[in-house]
TrEMBL record:
Protein name: Zinc finger DksA/TraR C4-type domain-containing protein
Entry's Gene Ontology molecular function annotations: zinc ion binding
Native organism taxonomy: Bacteria, Pseudomonadati, Planctomycetota, Planctomycetia, Pirellulales
Keywords: Metal-binding, Zinc, Zinc-finger
Domain named Zinc finger DksA/TraR C4-type: residues: 78-110
Zinc finger (dksA C4-type): 81-105
Top-level lineage group: Bacteria
Signal peptide (UniProt feature, chain positions): none
Amino acid sequence: MLKEISCPDCHWHRLVGTAEKLRLLHQVGMLRRSENPDAALIEELFQRSSRKLTCDECGRVGLRIDYPRDEEEDWGDGRVCEQCRRTIPQERLEALPDTKICIACQQKDEEGVDDTMPDFCPKCGEIMMQGTSRGGGLTRYRLRCPRCG
């Protein structure tokens, strides 16, 4: 089950699947290495790990863990950017009522920068991890699924 981790200070966020939850639990020392831990145990430990998780952007310790939000659930907060999940300023909504992304993400799109969504495995849906392979004296970077290999 996908969960969204987010920083209350800088509004950084990321979706995490089961493999990423396991990696984060190992990183904060809440789960020892085991072959196949129970899914319910992973979910419970991950929920309890929120005070130990660190923001990738600002380094804050203590993150929020929640279900990924849909646009319909964002009542009263104005409209949320589809890419960065930050609230779109009211001035932008007044000028462009149909916009679904904030000005920062709009600029990234126009410049061709796409760093907002992780790649997911087409077989199992886990977040792909970047790995290296060496051969012929060169280091090559490739995406691989932590579950499928």
